[in-house]
Amino acid sequence: MRRIIATLASVGTAALLAPAIAAPAYAQAQARPTDPVSALAKQFKVKRGVHMTSATKTSIGGMPGLKSRTEGDLQFGPSGIVASDLTTRNDFGNLFQDDEDLQGLNQPMRTITINKTAYISGGIFGDIIPSDKTWLRVPGASSASPDSSQFVNVFDARSLRAVLATTKAKGNGGTLDGTRTTVYRGSITLKQLAAASPAMKKQLTGLDAKSGKTMLNWKMWVGADQLVRRVTTAVTFTIKSKKMSFDMDLTGDTKFTKWGSKVSITAPPASEVATSADIDGSVPEVPTIITPGMMAAKS
Asked: Residue 30 in 3-state DSSP?
């Protein structure tokens, strides 16, 4: 099965709200030191978590491209994310309509990830899983970075600290998830992101000197409790080859709600789970939603 790399990208960013006349509650929030890293660490408790909604999209040469939306719950342990239950809806349009093996790409796909094992249902796998099974077991997965298309991983303390260090402005972010927020805005290079932590360096594999200078524009809405409620990112890559040159715009918008809620994610019943050995033929390779490192390697 040939490997197909499709580029999805990130997501419409909202305009930065201009600072308004500060109400007392907002003024009080502004007076507190900004420390989302410490606030995040306090959320890492067994069977507690957060709800995530993420939208991504791309435009190529000014034309709308691929879109994706992911929503679901993340479960925490003492040191971070230990499980996730996410449903992704991709919109590849008519890009793969002539490939019978990829007809399920635009169908919703649910993925439960626990430790290093993923269980996938629907999507491109819907037609290949045996009729008496619902899930396909895929080893070697990770739930530590649930939004692979987003350049800012708020669950990586070093990356979060590095991004906030590039803040250029802040203002009243309005109310999100029932709390007053401050919106921070800044720009950071991919090289700075890669240097922020081992996890981000791995995600940005393939980064060369030229692409390392690419600037990522970001906005982050932080609640009065110092928890991140929303992150948007926007970056433009110039893709060059011998025959053509064009810009690719990637945007991402991720929202976090219900911090500290009870979350208990379990694996599907074993009787409903198939493995690759149960598949008649080879398991299709899902077109890869572009990651920061893959895009950097192409720019």
From this structure: helix
| Each residue's pLDDT tens digit, 53-65 | 999 988 887 777 7
pLDDT in tens, 212-221: 888 999 999 9
Helix (H), strand (E) counts: the chain:
7, 12
Rounded Cα distance, 39 and 225, in Å: 7
Q: Which residue has the higher pLDDT, 71 or 283?
A: 71
Structure tokens at 177: 């998830």
Strand 273-274 and strand 135-139: the pairing is: parallel
Placement of tokens 């109310």 in the chain:
175
Reported as half-sphere exposure (CB side, CA atoms, 13 A), residue 67 has a value of: 10
CA distance 212 to 232: 20
> Taking the domains of the chain in order of start, what are their residue ranges?
24-298
Separation CA 125–CA 105 (nearest Å): 9
pTM summary value: 0.79
Residue keyed to tokens 């993923």: 118
- C-alpha to C-alpha distance for 117 and 11, rounded to whole angstroms: 28
What is the spatial order of strands in the sheet that 63-77 belongs to?
Answer: 167-176, 179-189, 215-223, 228-240, 245-262, 48-60, 63-77, 80-91, 109-114, 117-122, 135-139, 273-274
Q: What is the pLDDT of residue 31?
A: 39
The domain 24-298: what is its CATH number?
Answer: 2.50.20.20
Task: Report which DSSP code applies to 10.
Answer: B
Closest Cα to residue 234, out of 135, 150, 170, 110? 150
Query: Quick one: pLDDT at residue 293?
Result: 46
